[in-house]
Amino acid sequence: MSGPPAGDAVLLMMCNAPDAGVAERIAQELVARGLAACVNVGAPVLSIYRWQGAVERAEEVPLFIKTVQARREAVQDAIAGLHPYDVPEIVALPITHGLPAYLEWVRQETQC
């Protein structure tokens, strides 16, 4: 049994924004452009990270972006263009299991 074509593989992409306003703008743009089927804007979290040699702390708002492999680069480019950070966190994980109808919905909503 084979899976979907490589470009149709569903991904969960994640990004942290500095505040709810930026997070909502990014989410709205990704969905409006058809780059993501859905973006969940989470509650603020505390991030502790190393930046330019110092340990930093910041409250950030996580984004959980459902898209497909064929849209990954476009999602990354859109986030980079909308995000105020010099180096925003943009990561992607493959979704290996899920409700088939949901995964198909993600594919339909993000068709190129």
TrEMBL record:
SUPFAM superfamilies: GlnB-like. One of its GO terms (molecular function) is copper ion binding. One of its GO terms (biological process) is response to metal ion. Transmembrane segments: none annotated. InterPro entries: Ion_tolerance_CutA, N-reg_PII-like_a/b, N-reg_PII/ATP_PRibTrfase_C. Belongs to the CutA family. This is Divalent-cation tolerance protein CutA. It comes from Pigmentiphaga humi. The lineage of its organism: Bacteria, Pseudomonadati, Pseudomonadota, Betaproteobacteria, Burkholderiales.
